Structures are given as structure tokens and as C-alpha cells.
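Thread: Modeling a multi-component assembly for a lab meeting

Hi all, long-time lurker, first post. My supervisor asked me to bring a structural picture of a complex we are working on to next week's group meeting, and I have zero experience with this. I have the sequence lines for every component (895 residues in total). Could someone generate the structure of the whole assembly? Inputs are pasted exactly as I received them:
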Amino acid sequence: MTRDHDVLVLGAGLAGMRAALEAARNGADVAIVTKVHPIRSHSSAAQGGINAALGEGDSWESHAFDTVKGSDYLADQDAVEIMTQEAPRDIIEFEHMGVIFYRAPDGKLGTRAFGGASQARTYFVGDITGQALLVTLYDQILKAGVKVYEEWFATKLLMENGACRGLVALEMLTGELHLLRSKAVVVASGGLGRLYEPSTNALMCTGDGYSLAYRAGAPLMDMAMVQYHPTTLAGSGFLMTEAARGEGAYLLNSEGERFMKRYAPNKMELAARDVTSRAEATEIAEGRGINGNVLLDLRHLGPDVILKKLPQIHEMAVDYLGIDMIKEPVPVRPGMHYQMGGIKTDVSGATVVPGLYAAGEVACVSVHGGNRLGANSLLDTIVFGRRSGHASAQYAAQTVRSGGGEDLLQSEQARLQGLLDRPYSGETCAGLRLELATMMDEKVGLYRSDEGLHEALDQLREFRRRYENVAVGDKSRVFNQALTFVLELGFLLDCGETIIRDALIRKESRGAHTHVDYPDRNDEDWMVHTLLTDRGEEEPEISHLPVTITRWKPEVRTY
Amino acid sequence: MQFTIEVGRYNSDGNYAPNAVPGEPYPPPWNRSPVRRYQTYTVDLPVHAVVLDALIAIREYQDPSLAVRCACRSAICGSCAMWINGHAHLACKSKLQEFTKNGKTRVESAPSMPVIRDLVCDMQPFWDKHLAVKPWLQAKEPVPPSDQEYRVPNASMEELIQEVSCISCGACLMDCESFAVNPDFLGPQALAQAYRYAGDPRDAQTKERLGEYSKPGGVWDCTHCYECVTQCPKGVAPLEQILKLRRMAVDAGYTNNAGTRHADAFASSVKHSGRLNELTLMPKSTGFFNIVGQLKTLPSAINMIRAGKLPPLIHKAIPGVNRIKAIFERVGGRFK
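Re: Modeling a multi-component assembly
Sure thing. I ran the full set together rather than chain by chain. Output:
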């Protein structure tokens, strides 16, 4: 069945719903397409808070500088300026929508400290900030009556004369494939954590949007910048919020030493994430870890702070490790958490493909550069979600909707049927994904080397070959997850390839990209972004863009 | 360690809920108990594994046709609420060891919700109820300018964290005794969210909300079974929020309803005789002059008489009833 809208938003996390709300406010007929119910979106897992220079004595310039320094000078400073200038109003808007932000004694919004920030400027709701923002925004979507196609899985973008004019999606409930036509599409489908094992990300973070946009001609930028979060729970890899350290928790090695004093003497545990994760990895590699972990010690904070401000991570440590952090330190290690790179957009969310916009983790404006500061991702989603919603609605107002697309629907139908008809070969989707993700963690993780990256690229080619033999182990129409898992693995392979290629190109160490063969940052040659553009069967086209510098020249980065 | 899982399988391929229009409010009655087939799987997992680990292992390496919703694996996204050994739990928070009974764990879609496939149920009734309580802030005037927040005490925000912690998993509704017999009941999650907004000092519509929530299907339809408090994986304790709404509604003057009359009749009887006068409880709750309502209770009354449950016709006070009265005087408030 074919449906028409002005703007389609792919994804219903914070960026997607914010974009949809703004497009609706600007008069567009907007619909959200999401493979999970909006409330299940991974934005809800953001724990610690959201940054803004809102308090007295703080300034957007200070927030911007911290962000630029945190990015290891790879962020575009014009974009960072916009984000930090608009942050206060966006946060106040969410407060007016009903978010129950923590208050200072005077009844105004109160803050907590966060990594890499020179001021305490993180606004929060306990350790469920993302969830609090997400439910509030979802309820605004309900109030505004925005159409949501829930549990619809996008398989391909509809392109016409080089412009994006909709998408094809599989309705999980019925197994029916639909053509959704529009004047503009905003991709806000979140991250790609399933490409790494372990990862803090949910099972549905499979990089759908990166791949869909890439295959539609939009370049992916700085894909090598994959963030490892310093505190993920031993074993399961679940996130232990940076807010724990923001509230004063220590990182200890096996000798009980606060080792961060040797890596970041001023900021200690609140150094930027790349610095802290590498410090932990060094401690573990040099034999001062405990079974591959270090310890996150919150005991001195006392039960009141832990239970009131960090109840969720307290509960998680009890549930999944049987450790009560009030009484015992929690074993943690660096774990894959966030993709700084993504679909290259301008500050209004527009890609180089007409009609195609992107926002949130899947996009790369770039405000995070080589390393994102904690509590800047929620900010990124609501600022650039809003801006892309606005810009896409404006664009749609002067654009004619597509009248075609039936041929794409048919070719997608045939492609999915082809997947379903594949004979069983012994190759499983889950097994191949696990091999891929383990390989990415080992060879394209916290540390990279030329040798390892070349091996990774070879292995990835082999995985692609094997992927052609993965059969769909379920032939039903209704809720066929075996089919969508195979499609997701295809997206992950595209993401993996672009990450490895970008990592091979960047011959320096910057932010999250630590290259053991080029251990230093090289500002002379590498103050540039790398863009990869799909060329079908051929290797992707490589191009570079200079980093936009407005006022902060690169400096030596210490914490 | 070896675990045995018995999974309720169901595939609606081609005949799912014929009376449903996707995206439209769900017309009850739906097919609450389709024929499930129970399939047994054995999985080898670490001692501390949870039910979801087992389901994922089955889906990934034994039976790709097993449908189950899950995402975060850490009790944040709310996807994986289902019946485990006959009660609603999050699969990602339920340790296999604790749930192994007679050598196995039984897992199925909660029968109170329409099932789509295997462990995937249709949550539409749940979302319809959520929407019905108008779960958004009706901003109180004057709305501060766009660069200023509402100034409210932190305690008033902190009090609402319990309700905001709700992850909409639906476990409370799945096991709600009242919902089981009355599909129109708004249910624990929606009413907890109702309190989240009614109790927000920035909300301008508190009184109107309380009026809405006092109607049939609202706060008075809860039967205090505490299932929602027991099953909620996030400590939201919906029943406690429902009780707060009841107090607020009565204080706001919404007393002309069976629920308030029932509570009043209950209290009045205890105050005057030290125990419950069951003979007058029903007429007082329904309203003495509500003839139609009274007649409607007749069949139950007749059934009670038949079953020998007729309360004594002469209701006597217990000895020392004055001391009970004194308690009421001391507590004060509505029943003084």
C-alpha cells in the first residue's frame, strides 16, 4: 500500500521525535517510521544528563571551548557555537514541556559535574535523564497527533532524479511491504553499537540509517571516531553513567590507587572519555587491572546520593553482578558506546542529497569531532533534531511529492523474497554478527594499527561473501524477526567497512582514534574530515573537508 | 548450566485479530486465549543468566522462528514484559535460577493481552489507556519566558521520579485483576502517569484531570489487589499513585460517585459499630435513590444468599466501639 506525506522521519528517539514535532509545527504533514515503539528507543538509555551553559557565571563560549577541546579539535566550531548558544533555550523548552529536572535550592534548574567540562553544567533527572526527556517528548507527539508507523522496518530510501522522496518499509505486524512517499526524509535512526561486542547499545542499534543514506549517495564522515565509554559493567557491558564520577566516584586499580592522577592530574576521573578509557586500558595492560577491569568506587558518596541520584545504576549492578555499590566497588572497563561520525550534514541537518536530512547519533554535523563529551549527545539530538525538522519542513513546502516509486517497491519485494528463499547453508546470522562484532572490538576498537586494520578489511570482505549465504530461518509473514536481523546485518557490514576504511586513512592519533603506528596528533596534515561516498561495487570515493575553525586554534590537550 | 525453557508458541499468520484495525483504538473483546503450543528448549548458560538470555540463545542458535521483543537487555527499554511462570515480569530482569520450578521455566505472552506471535503481544490496549489520561503537561499560567524555567522546589520534582521511572513495559496491566474483567479500566500504568501530571505543580488542569479520573473506568475501579505493585520492575507502585489520586479527587470535591460513597459507607460503618455492615454497604455505595443501580446488584445479592453468605440482618456494634470513634476523632479529616 502507498502512503503520502510531506516529511518522513526515520527513527523515534529524541532526534527523530524532536524533528517530527518541529516539522509539524511548521505546517508539514509529518509521519514517523520506526522499527520499535518510540518509548523503546535507545535515547531512554542515556543516563547522566544534558549540557547547557545556563547557570550564572557560565557562558556558551566556555561550553563551546570544552566541546572543541573534548573533540580533540576535530569538531566544526561554527556548528559547536550554534549548539552551545541554542542549548539553554532548548533545555528550557523541555522544562516547559514537563521534564522534571533536578532543582537547586532556589527552585531553579540544578546541575551536576561531568567529564571534560570546566563548569558543572549538566542538567539531569536522577540517572534516567534520557528516559525522562523521551517520555515527555513522546507525550508531546501524542498531543500533536503526529502519525507514527510503529514497528515498520525501513529497507531502502526512495530516490528520484538524485533526490530523496520517501522509503520502503516492512510492517512487522502483517509482513506487508509499503511504499511511503514524501518530499523530504529525516534520518534519525540512532547508532550502530551492535557492530561491536560488547557494547553499551541496545540490540536494535544496527546502523540502519548510516547504510540507507550511504547507499542513497550521502557521504559518511569521520566514521573512525568510535567512542569507548570508560565505565561499562564487567560482563554484560551495560552502561554505568559518567554521572557516578560527576557525583564524585573514584576509579581505582588493583592496588587501590586513583590512577587517573597519572593521566589527568587536574580533572582526575572527569577527564574526557577517550583519555579516561585509554588510561584504564593502560592500567589493565600493565597488570594493574582485576580480571580485565578496573574498579568504580562510589562507597564514599553514601547511600543517600547513590539511591536518590543514581538509583538505576545501583539497581543494574545488583541485578547483573550481584554487587551493592553502597558497600562494594563495581568492576568496570571501557566499552564501545557511541559513533561520533556519521551522515555528513550541515547545521540545518541537510545532507548533500536533496530532500535527505539527518540528525542525532546517525548524523555528523560535526559537533563531537574525535571525541564526544558526556551529556552532549542528548543536546545534539534536541538541537539538531529541531533544526532538521524545521529545515525539512521548509524544503518540503517548496517541493513536489513523488508520484512514482512502485518499481522500487517491487524490486524490494523481490529482494526480500530472495532472502526468504535462500537455502539453508549452515551460516547463521547471529554467528556471523558475533564474529564481525568481536573482530571490530579487537582490531578497530580502542587501539588500531595498520596491520590490524588491513586484516580487518580483509576479514570484512570475507564476512560480506559469507553474508550472501546467510539464510532466513523463518518463513512466516507476521513478525518475522529472522528476516529483519539479516537486513540489519547487511547495514552493519556497511558501517563496519566505512569505519575500517576511515581508520586506515587517518594516519595520526586523535580523539577516539588511537593509532599505535602514528601515536601523535598531527595538526599539520589531519585537521580535516574524511568523507566516504558509495560507488557501488567499486571502492568508496575518499574526499576531505577542512575543519571549520572560528576562534579556537588547536592546542595541546591535557586534563 | 543447563536450563529448560517451555515457551508458549503461537503464530497468527493470516488470521491475527480479525476485528482490529492497526493504529486504531482496539475494540474488545479480543482473542485473549488463542491456542498455544508449548515447545521445550534446553540451553546452556552461565548460572546468573536471565530468562531473556535464554530466549536470545534459542532465537539465535536453535530456533530463528521464535519471536520476542527485546532491546536494551537491562530493564530500561520496557520491551520484554511477558508471563514467566504465570506472572508478568521483564525477561531481562528475571534470573533463570530463581524462576526454575520443577526443573523448568514456563514463558508465554501474557494472556490478558492480544497475542500476535509467540512472545509478542499487541500493546495497543495499553497505549490507548496511556493516551486516555492526557499524559502531557497543561502548562500553568503564567508560563515563564522562553529563557526561564518554572521555579519549583526540588522535592516536588523528586516526588515524581517514581512515576517517571515507568518504562511502559505493561507488566502491571498484564496482571491487573480489574483489567482482566473490565477492559475499560484505565489500568495501573495510565493512572500512575495520570498522577505524574496531576501531581505536577506546573500543571494547570489538576482539577479537571481529577474529575476525569473519577469517572467509571478510573481510580475507583481498582480493587487493591496489589498485583501492579508486585509486578512493576521499576518500583513505580501504581496502586500507591491511584490512592493519591483518590485522595486528591475527594479533596477536590469529586464525591458523587460509587467509589467515594463506598469508602464513606465503609468508614462510617466502622466508626459507628466497629465493624463492617455488609448489608448496607452495597446500597450506600450505589446510592439509596439509584433504583436502577440497586436492581442491578440484586443478582449478586441472590447468589450470596444462595451461597449462605447473607450478612446478619441485625448489625451489632462491637464492645468498646467508643474507643474506635475516638480514633476517628483523633485522626480527623473527612470521617470525623
